[in-house]
Amino acid sequence: MPLNTTTSDIALEVVLPGVPHQFVLVTESPFLIGRGSENGNHLRLEDQRISRRCAALVAEGNGYRLEDRGHRQGVFVNGEKVKHKTLEDGDVIYFGVDDCCEIIFRSSAPKPPMQETHSGPETRSMAAVELPAGGSSGGLGKLNLLLEATALLHSQLPLESVLGTMLDHAIAITHADRGVLIEPGSSGSALSELFRVRLARGSGGEALPAQSITPSQTALRQAVNQQATVIKGDLNLADQGLDVAQSIVAQLLRSVVAIPLYAMPRANSDASIIAKRGQLLGVIYLDSKTPAAFSGLDRQILDALGMEAASILDNARLVEQERERQRMDQELAIARAIQQAMLPQGLHDFPHLAVTGEQLPCNAVGGDYYDVFSISPERTAFLIADVSGKGLGAALLTTMLQGALSAMSLGTDPVRVFNHINRFLCEHSEVGRYATLFFAIIDDDGTLEFINAGHPSPLLLRRGTVSELYTIGSFPVGLVAQAEYTATTLKLEPGDTLVLFSDGIVEAQNPDRELFGFPRLQDLLANCQEASLDTLKKRILDSVEEFSRGASQSDDMTLLIARYRGSAQAI
Fold it and tell me: For 284, how many CA atoms within 13 A lie in the half-sphere containing its CB?
């Protein structure tokens, strides 16, 4: 109905940054505000984000009431969301959309010229305010959002909060109904049927259940395969099967955007790698039920958004990798401390035996170990072992073997123990490890009883000669289930010295990839017959280091040297 003369000078001041203010005279009640003309809107706000039935001004006595007629983002007065509110002069009306206009309620018309709406039985003209999308104000607003997104890189906020804000920025820039952050599938190189929705947000900043959203895999695959943003402004006109995709039809979607996110390429010795894309980090997926919602998007803005989002994800990934590295370093340090504590500490001489040893792992933890322990006052056991492989797996097996073999101090038969350990490891073949071992017991009278399990033969130094204890090989424990181990006996003479070593000693390489070798070790020992055990150990290790000339080694190096004193005889 037409307004009475007391309210005929009510006006709306339409404010848009960078554009002269427009004044619209209100002459009817209800006075309809919305997008397009099909609903009889008196004030048309030509912005795709504004609902066709947005709001209405309704005369109420001598006052005026604003009503929300179904705007998706809600109607706000002076920053407060309202369903209806009696207006006062100067109240600011806002529609919950960035870069949109503000409408100031004026209870008296200003003097400058204004747009006026008329109604009559035959015709009706309507005031239309064009809201520039992508113009100066829109572009500046989007740039501001991008700058805010960049600032997230340096924030101290929790990662999920940063990702949520990043997704809110993407929704605000594109004016989407909702947005989803998708991580790569299990393959790690491309999105598969098993992609994972990490985060989902609505246009109002609210969190959405991940299971409630089924992104279009067709759009995702296109974005990943093309390595570029995919924009489908009206799916009724889309090609490549998007218009008939089940997820599109079921959710009544009309527009989608998929922005692939890639890690920054890392430069290396191959300069061509610099130009290549990095690892796929995920996809920002946005959709809307409004046709052509994304048709006016500036691809440069989307590209910039994708770069900022990728930087945030990449930075988070690198931070997570660094935390994982620190955690692994800490665990390795603990494992190394445990392993070193398991080695004999401060080897002491026995009445009939002098011993010394050294272990030099090539990694934080090693697969070699040695041990020396008393079985009785007259009998002393010593052993050296080398587990296949390196790292924590090998270290775990060395600890298990050390515990099992140390039980021989209780008087268990060594042959039975070796056969049992071999069968146990073979029955648990999923462990995928085996070990070479040399185990020996020396009595006070010089009787040496030893078991060889595939380990390099110790060298015996006796009266100026160097010889091997055995030349026939045997199987490592954990390799052949049918293997049976036997003990061999040898009589030592006072002054006899046994040099036990792992293959890391004889297989040490120099820069020319030559091996230190067994003959070189024998020649070295032949000239050290009268040296003390500590001197002998130092000469061996120094010779290996000098031979290697700084070349990195790929295997642990372990030495154990034992000298028989003789019964009740000092060394």
Answer: 32
